[in-house]
Amino acid sequence: MNPQNHTQKLKQITVFFSAVGVILGGSVPVEAQLYNHTLTNFVNIAQIPATTSLDIVDTVVSAGEFTILTQALQAADLVDILKAEGPFTIFAPTDKAFSELPPGTLENLLKPENKAELVKILTYHVVPGKVLSTDLKSGEVETVEGDTINVQVGASVKIDNATVIKADVPASNGVIHVIDTVILPN
């Protein structure tokens, strides 16, 4: 992509995010210690850096638990977008989550002719703005893809049929919440 097209694409994305805004009005009083305790007991994702100096993509790559997500972002040409200023909130499925898709699904999605469907699925995992676990409340939230995800806040946090297994992973351009299942738009 030439620099002029890249700049134009980033401007379009910035305008889109500005227009959409953060859909999550208000907040739910959440005890962060409870969520951190609950969420980190599900899986040990020790490699995720606790720093905000890396952007979302570099944080995901450095964690080592998201090689399939990284491959999918590259196939969908979304890497540069998620390296942009943001802020973004991404619900990031682990490699294990991707491996639980029906046989052949991932391979099919990674084919160039299925790029539009892959983009739709990946952008369904992204919400505009920086949304921490303490900002989440139960209800419908619009994604970058355009559909809504169903958020359920309780003893654990559910995003559609996925459970957040690690919340509030900081990045310089947003925040990452690790989920145990790939969520799919309608």
Describe, in plain words, how this protein is organized in 3D.
By secondary structure, the protein is of the alpha+beta class. It is 36% helix and 20% strand. The chain contains 8 helices and 7 strands, in the order H-H-H-H-H-E-H-H-H-E-E-E-E-E-E. It has helices at residues 3-20, 32-40, 56-63, 67-75, 79-82, 95-99, 105-109, 115-123, and strands at 88-93, 126-128, 139-142, 148-153, 157-159, 162-171, 174-179.
Largest sheet: 7 strands, mixed
Poorly predicted residue ranges? 1-44
Percentage of β-strand residues: 15-25%
Q: Element order, helices and strands?
A: HHHHHEHHHEEEEEE
Helix percentage range? 25-40%
Record field, number of beta strands: 7
What is the C-alpha radius of gyration, as a whole number of Å?
A: 16 Å
Number of alpha- plus pi-helical segments:
8
What is the overall silhouette?
globular
**Gap from first CA to last CA:** 31 Å
Average pLDDT metric: 78
- What is the topology, as strand order, of the major beta sheet? 2-1-7-6-5-4-3
Structural class label: alpha+beta
Provide tags for this entry.
disordered N terminus; 7 strands; 20% strand; alpha+beta; 186 residues
Report a brief summary of the structure.
By secondary structure, the chain is α+β, with helices and mostly antiparallel strands.
Layout of helices and strands, plus pairs?
Elements: H1 3-20, H2 32-40, H3 56-63, H4 67-75, H5 79-82, E1 88-93, H6 95-99, H7 105-109, H8 115-123, E2 126-128, E3 139-142, E4 148-153, E5 157-159, E6 162-171, E7 174-179
Parallel strand pairs: 1-7
Antiparallel strand pairs: 1-2, 3-4, 4-5, 5-6, 6-7
